[in-house]
Amino acid sequence: MGIVALVILVVVVIVVLSVIGVFNALVGLRNQVKNAWSQIDVQLKRRHDLIPNLVETAKGYMQHERGTLESITKARSDAMSAQSVGEKAKAETALSSAMSKFFLVVENYPDLKANQNFLAVQEELTSTENKIAFARQNYNDQVLFFNNKIQMFPSNIVAGMFNFKSQEFFEVEGKEERAVPKVKF
User: Fold this and answer.
1) Residue 54 neighbours by CB distance under 10 Å
2) CB 98 within 8 A of CB 72
3) Which position has the higher pLDDT, 58 or 89?
4) Which of 61, 76, 153, 183 is the most buried (most CB within 10 A)?
């Protein structure tokens, strides 16, 4: 009985240690997903903070483009109040669309395009857009890794035991975001 009990004890210890290892790995991955999401949130806040500066700078030049400026302000407000990943993705798509339309309208205002304040804010916004794109990709990479881990054997058993759920990807919505931009000279 001594050998059988020892073998059973070793197997139980190995199983328990394996479960602990997988559980800790899943917790670490879940936290990486949360961190990646918070990085997106930081960049989105930066974007949301820059937009009023851009709109204020443009207001003096674009008196009769009120609708364009109001649509940006509304889209920004909607984006700031979105809660879930899906809601944020949809709201940020709408905001990106409004910003694209705004920059098309700006082309009709040579004085505005040459304004140093406008150029500085536009550069900051461009930089922020690049950071958002990077943060989105990083978030989606983390979600992919986490979702793979909780769906693959044997970690899916531990994930099921401890109620780990798949995370939602940050996906582009709408035809406008997926369309290839047209550049005209």
Assistant:
1) 22
2) yes
3) 89
4) 76
In this structure, is residue 185 part of a structural domain? no
Q: What pLDDT, in 10s, does the model give residues 130-174?
A: 999 999 999 999 999 999 999 999 999 999 999 999 999 988 765
As a whole number of angstroms, the distance between CA 3 and CA 106 comes to 82
The three-state DSSP-derived secondary structure of 164-175 is CCCCCCCCCCCH
- Host domain of residue 12: 2-178
Angle (nearest 5°) at CA 74 between 86 and 137 = 35
pTM for the complete prediction? 0.75
Grouping H, G, I as helix, E, B as strand and the rest as coil, residue 65 is coil
Angle 20-25-28 (CA atoms, 0-180°, nearest 5)?
125
CATH of residue 134's domain is 1.20.1440.20
Q: For 95-109, how does the pLDDT look when each residue is reduced to its tens digit (9 = 90+)?
A: 988 888 888 888 877
